Amino acid sequence: EFMQSSWDVEEVQAKGIQHLASFVKDGSAFPYLLTCTEVITLAMKTHIDSLDLQVEGCTLLLEILSQALEQGVMMALDESVARCLLHTVRKHSENEEFLSMICTLLMMVSASEVAAENLRKVGIIPDLLSILRRFLHNDKICFSCCAVLWSLAVSENNADQAVLESAVPVTSAVLQNHLQNGVVAEFACSALWALALQGCLTDSDYEPTAALLLDALRMNPERAVLVKNGCLALASLVRLSETAALAILLDSKGSGVELIKDEYHLHFDEPGVAGALCLLMNEMVQYDEVMLDMRSQKMEKLLSEIKLQFPFS
Question: What is the pLDDT of residue 229?
Answer without folding.
Answer: 94
